[in-house]
Amino acid sequence: MKIWTRLLGVAMTAAMLAAGPALASDIKTVKLGTEGAFPPWNSTNADGTLEGFEIDLGKILCERMKVECEWVVQDWKGIIPALNAGKFDAIMSGMSATAKRAEVIDFSIPYGSTGQTFGVLEDSDLAKLPLNGDVFPLASKPEEAKKAIEEIKPLLKGKIIGVQSSAIAERFLQENLADVAEIREYGKTQEHDLDLMSGRVDAIMASTAYISTAMKDPANKGMILAGPRFQGGILGKGSSLGLRKGSDELKAMFDEAIASARDDGTIKELSMKWFGFDVTVY
Amino acid sequence: MDIQFFWESLITLIPGIPLTLLLAFLSTFLGAFLALLLATMRLSGIRPLGWFAQGYLFVFRGSPLLVQLFLIYYGLSQFPAVRHSFAWTFLRDPYWCAIIALTLNTAAYASEVIRGGLLSVPHGQVEAARASGMSGFMLFRRIVFPLAIRQALPAYGTELILMVKATSLASIITIMEITGLAAKLVSETYRVIEVFIVAGAIYLAINFILTRIVMALEYRLTPHLREPRILTALALENESAGEIS
Prior knowledge:
The complex is a heterodimer. Chain A is α/β, with parallel strands linked by helices. Chain A has 2 domains: 2-113 and 238-274, 3-Layer(aba) Sandwich (D-Maltodextrin-Binding Protein, domain 2), CATH 3.40.190; 116-235, 3-Layer(aba) Sandwich (D-Maltodextrin-Binding Protein, domain 2), CATH 3.40.190.10. Chain A is built from 10 helices and 14 strands. Chain A has helices at residues 2-19, 53-65, 79-84, 99-102, 142-156, 168-176, 189-198, 208-214, 248-263, 266-274, and strands at 29-34, 37-38, 42-44, 50-51, 68-73, 90-91, 105-107, 116-121, 135-137, 160-164, 182-186, 203-207, 223-231, 242-244. Chain B is mainly alpha-helical. Chain B has a single domain (3-244), classed as Orthogonal Bundle (MetI-like fold). Chain B is 80% helix and 0% strand. Chain B has helices spanning 3-13, 17-43, 47-62, 65-75, 80-83, 88-91, 94-119, 123-131, 136-166, 178-189, 192-221, 229-244. In chain B, α1 (3-13) packs across α11 (192-221) and α2 packs across α7 (94-119). Chain B is flat and about 65 Å long.
């Protein structure tokens, strides 16, 4: 009996030493779900192919995990149910790891974070929102963040703010600004952009990365970043891969691959290419 | 089976009912006038008017309501001329965009229903009315319209039900009616089946009540199809007499 246990132990150690992450051997292919409409994280080209920070990073992670990866495009609203229904194995779609989402799915360690801010038209009175570009972490500096919110409230009084429904920015708005402004919810971020441009909403709230990309689109001429940037707390730890509960093996593989891409500067390099600033979560 | 969650979903969705009903009724009401106008145009015998009505029908019956909603809401707002015009007071508001799209849509379908009703009025009735000295609007109000409505009512009842269901599309232009609230609840709880079962049940309940109302109205409008009360009473008497013997 004892000799068997010992033999098993030796065999396991040997296997680990030989194959690195021994677990990797089990999983050969991974299907990644993405919205394909959330640049610069992920977006769809005119010819139907996907591109973006996550598409590049996902490819690198899969190479390091030694698995074949396949992308599946899925509407944002149904992306978590689709993961749980088994349509794909992981969500890589600019999804922040919030506590609420963590009740139904697991998350890898974060691979990027940009914070949430406002987008307005340059000729509107909201263009003068105070604290433009300053970063306020909700979790580590709650007092300062609260003060910042109070400071922008007077200008937002009676205004309509567009936000993607059930995105983290929506929760932030409902909790902090719903008493002064009307929150209007959209299925897709592109839809609130259209309504910002037409003047149906006075401001939008989305990730800094999203707005800074959207405003480069000729259709959104006149859109600018405004007001403070919030991150952490209810806004999540940053974008992570969403995984079905119990996919511990896959999570371990992704965590290791993300950590290696973070440590050797791959994430920074990709983020400079797609965002123009470093989104690495250190 | 999580009864508690079903209950919570119901409580969340109930505030959407007034908005759903408002969208359905206001647009059906406004649409009815437009439909009557379109039907009259087609039956007027004046060719350009008939062509216009047919063209309208072709466009609004032939294209999906979802596409019409998108075009009216996101499409029109692309033009600065529209944004600077008087129409923008309405088009700026998602509720009015939904009402406009639903009204234009239902008018197309309802105009055919009304046209069918108008065509079904027996010529003899019109002749008799003319013989009694009625003409023009009085003829229409007293004879043609009541008869046409009676014929058109079953089909119009269906249109009303379709409209209640069509309001669910308004959720895509940020309107938080029943389906809008349901979609939001799903994205918060990720429980698709329970939430949409509750939403479906609410629509069923609304349409159940609606069909009863239409049935009651039909009953009222068709006294000639009912057995005279005296005969019914006699029949009952005979029946009970039969039971005794």
